[in-house]
Amino acid sequence: MTPDRALKDSAISQAITKIAIALAGYRQLPVQKRLPLIDVVFMLPGSQERVQFTGLRIRGFDPAAQSLQFEAAVPDKMVASAHAERYVIAVMQDAIDAGAEFCRERQILFDSTEHLALSEALVAKPHYAVN
């Protein structure tokens, strides 16, 4: 959710887009095709509009689609942060952990290990020059 046009080119918006594109590149993996699905909506802070919670919360579960939705309240300091990409991945990992607990309580099979491994594959690795 982008409540402010000024946020469109922010570091956090760019990080969310970059991670979404990277995930799309892995769509052929079986873990990306198994149910239940976990969706995360990043709620960005605008100058006029802000969410009334902090952290991550469950938005809802659609049993027909087997989709668990989360909302993440993005803190102000993350909007222009150099660590925005790592933050997005950390939120995804928190959602995976929370989703695993949700599924376990309802006896729904969910492979959190594979989802966490996929999220780790998205972490930018440092590049070193060899002379």
Automatic annotation (TrEMBL):
It comes from the Bacteria. This is Uncharacterized protein. It comes from Methylomonas koyamae.
